[in-house]
Amino acid sequence: MLSERRLEVLRAIVQDYVGTEEPVGSKALTERHRLGVSPATVRNDMAVLEDEGYIAQPHTSAGRIPTDKGYRLFVDKLAGVKPLSSPERRAIQNFLDGAVDLDDVVGRTVRLLAQLTRQVAVVQYPSLTRSTVRHVELLSLAPARLMLVLITDTGRVEQRLIDCASPFGETSLADLRARLNSRVVGRRFTDVPPLVQDLPESFEAEDRGTVSTVLATLLETLVEEAEERLMIGGTANLTRFGHDFPLTIRPVLEALEEQVVLLKLLGEANESGMAVRIGHENAYEGLNSTSVVSVGYGSGGETVAKLGVVGPTRMDYPGTMGAVRAVARYVGQILAES
User: What's the pTM?
Assistant: First the structure.
């Protein structure tokens, strides 16, 4: 267990290295921070931190830089989440309040996160498996052609065209629309199939085929759209950190192109809490030189998806965690009000 003084030395090293991008020496630490001890004592503390694997010497200079283990301890014990200022919070709210639909909400959230953190932003669309039905609309486009519109509680809208074997009248269409909504509105998507399976039997024989086709399309939509979607933005921000990636930035860019990898990274966020994965804690080798800060968002106290940022391990963790948490909270409020 490190002493409080050595924890303070580690905190100062992380803060200085993140701010200056230069390895930190004992003299600089004593000049910039009120550690209350001599440079010799700080050198001794740094030697212990290095022996314990919290800092490392990148080359023959006297300076030290934090290791993944050092950043981990900093995040877990030393870094508070930096709250956003009132102007920053107002700017977030004003920017997100202008969204017109779910795609716009996700797009604005990605741009906002990338701008606030100057990292790569990743936002997962609300999962249909965790969503509930707000409304099912059925529209007649032609005597034997319908459109099914599925609207979720998170504002997601799915549309499907349905070609019927025979004409389907407006009266029957209104009847089906009413019966369908009475059974599925407010229900989770995963609960829908058994709720509608006997619906065709309640219609006249000549309409049962069309009703079955509509239900099949509805259920197919749930299966098709169960695949998770996400949006990414701010990749160009990585070019500012070229020297933070030991060999090349290419493995990071390749990893960011793999949606499965990003979904897995976001999935590591707790349902209610924040997850910070540092360096080699990321299972995907291409991201071993990065850190991922992610958190869940949703409405009504329930998480429906995740969002976060990817950047170099030399990251402003308190500021990044504060921005990610604040944006997630505002997105959840928008979904609740939509």
Answer: 0.77
